[in-house]
Amino acid sequence: MPSATFQYRLSDGTWVTESSYVRLTIEDELGHPMNAKITVANFSNANAVNNRETVYSDYQEVRIREGNTSRYIFYGRIERIHPEYDAVYGHVVEIYARDLLQELLKVQVNTNYTPTLRSSLIRSLVSDHSQRGTSGIITSNADKFETSSSSEVGGVLDSNYTDKSTSALRAISELAIEDPN
Prior knowledge:
Blueprint lengths: L3 E6 L5 E3 L3 E7 L7 E7 L19 E6 L5 E15 L3 E10 L1 H6 L1 E2 L2 E2 L4 H12 L29 E2 L5 E2 H11 L3
Antiparallel strand pairs: 1-2, 1-5, 3-4, 4-7, 5-6, 6-7, 8-11, 9-10
């Protein structure tokens, strides 16, 4: 089994690597947001009793980096924190997190955009409809987000979402499917 690194983000933007995680499960089902369940050992000591559960909070950003390739395979937010007792590890904290794309699934688009490139429209949809703008879902890194190589015929995309009941994620999916590149 490949090694992985679990990290959580502090309120000042600093990423911290969790050294006490003992188990990691990622669920990735087509058509659904990716979920992660992270089990962190919650050992007691003289200075702090079961202190690991106070480190985490709901909606805190977390990410998981695969060890062999050093690529991030999960980036999301904590949805639930649950202290448990494990027969092998004793006191643990179960952390349940969901992929950041969930944010775009829940939000309806009701804006008229006039871009000339599909990538510009996708970038606008992400920044306008995610909870923290583009800080969570990165569209500025050329290695992760490609700019469309050609403009639309007629110069402007038909992207009027004011009368449609479309989620931001659905709109992005449809744009990606229609992309000729």
